[in-house]
Amino acid sequence: MSDPRSASHGRTNPERPAVSRGGTTAHDPVLDSVCRAEFSRERAVVIATHDGRPVDFRSPAGRSPRVDVVVVGAGPAGSTAARLLAARGARVVLVEARRLPRPKLCGGGLTPKAQRLAPPGALSTVERTVERTELRAPRLSPIHLEAPAASVAMVERARFDLALVEAAAAAGADVRDGVEALDVKEDPFGAWVATEQGRLRADALVLADGEPSRLARRLGLGGDARRLALALEVDLPFSAALALDVALLEFAVPGGYAWYFPKGDHASVGIGSYRPSQHRELKTALRRFAGTLDLDAAAGRLSGHWIPQGLRRGPMASARVVLAGDAAATADPLFGEGISYAMISGAVAAQVVADWEGRRVADLRAYDERLRRVLGPALGRLYWTARAVEASLDLALTAVRHSRHVRDQAVDAIAGRRGAFAVDRDCRFACVCALIGRVCPACRAPSGPGPSCAPPAACAV
Ligand SMILES: Cc1cc2nc3c(=O)[nH]c(=O)nc-3n(C[C@H](O)[C@H](O)[C@H](O)COP(=O)(O)OP(=O)(O)OC[C@H]3O[C@@H](n4cnc5c(N)ncnc54)[C@H](O)[C@@H]3O)c2cc1C
After folding, report:
1. Which of 40, 63, 246, 367 lies 20 to 30 angstroms, CA to CA, from 373?
2. Which CATH fold topology does 4-102+157-223+310-376 show?
């Protein structure tokens, strides 16, 4: 990578707005409060190696050997936490097992939520923005949606994640790629991270090491995700059957969907399902899906990975350690969107660490409750929406086709409008209406009484 460490070394971390893009703080209450949080900078940190020799954390410019926070994993969750913490004055070491830029299996679709949360440098890696989406299902004719408010920006994760790391380094984080955290420990005085280069000790540890978070398990944190999807992806040439500014979602498998996302010079083609009974079939289903686009899935390198969704059932924090991103299963259970939620959890982690440093919370266990409060309602609604869609796909898509109200709700959910990051109760209501086969008057479906109907809350279904 263009060595982010050189960007971080010697920085004095001057007073600066915590998030460099003004619009971000204005729109996002989580980031806003993270930006306001202050660090006491009073806690000392002891650093030692396995063999007792000291590790030199000092930069060439003579940075003092003190670390407030170690962040493990330089994906969107870890880089966001590192950036926000460093920007507030914490000493942050961000360790990443692989050399950067590192590939990450992903469709690389950034919803408006993710676009709002990403720093400008990361947004400059966007290769294409798609405002039109085609929805397909086995027994229905295609549905064409056009929604600038729900535009999806397409990125290659290697470049996007590198830009996030560079933003963290520019904020003052000490980035160490090619350094794997081999073990972690916690005691009343701090958290320890063992690496081949030695042992790091910090006041606080953010574990953002993705799925599966081996280190979280070692600490007895996390546990099962509410839902665990398996997704396969392959990079293929563009399909001549689709325009370059159209993304395609096909509800080709129970408990999931297949996607075609056009990037700069190729397309990401993939499929995922949370249903274990479908996992063996995914490869065949992906080949079939690619075939409908006149593409040969065997022409690219097919890989698969898990997407843990809907938060972990077990504790996601201890006194000194918090889990962020996939380590906390923050992806959404409807689309498997994980990047924005990983960044949000990184921001919440930074906020709670800042609150702890400022003695506004007793310890980092406050993170568990805070993360569930920030993301739980939205992810819960998306979970139930996913169940409703799965139970009655045709009805749900018919509602999308005919009801501007349902379409607006979907756009709001993808865009992250309406309060936090989710659809509101109107959307649940519309899904219930679709499920039971009656169309809400507010949905303005042909079978409903018409556009002047009552608002959903007054609907008597
Ligand atoms: C096939 C597929 C398609 C997807 N498509 C989309 C999409 O289009 N849009 C979307 O929003 N989401 C998508 N997702 C989900 C998204 O990729 C994840 O939710 C997101 O990457 C989670 O970010 P993270 O920071 O938690 O973890 P990651 O991005 O996985 O980063 C974790 C990092 O930790 C490092 N690490 C692991 N162990 C250690 C260790 N011991 N020491 C040091 N470093 C370590 C890893 O090398 C990695 O760099 C997709 C997922 C899959 C599998």
Report:
1. 40
2. FAD/NAD(P)-binding domain (3.50.50)
